[in-house]
Amino acid sequence: MCGVSPVERSSGHRQFRRLNRGGDRQANAALHRIVFTRLRVDPRTQDYYERRIKEGKTRREIVRCLKIYAAREVFHLVRGMQSQPPS
């Protein structure tokens, strides 16, 4: 729903994925800010980034993976807040 799911864009023997251009653009922008803030501040995210670079992943691929991970975290937080009765 946030436009972070990968979309296949393959040709012949080459396998490509790109970000889905659909979805809620404001939510995608928020995830973008979350990911780049984490890359600057969070040591776990920085370690993950370095590990993926050594595996040969591009910056775009790494950011896409981090956005998907952040979207899952935010979804579980929002879902948990909705299930609690208002106080």
From TrEMBL:
Domain Transposase IS116/IS110/IS902 C-terminal as annotated: residue spans:
2-50
Region called Disordered, residue ranges: 1-23
Record-linked Pfam families: Transposase_20
Entries under InterPro entries matching the protein: Transpos_IS110, Transposase_20
Q: What is this protein called?
A: Transposase
Which organism was this protein described from?
Streptomyces cinerochromogenes
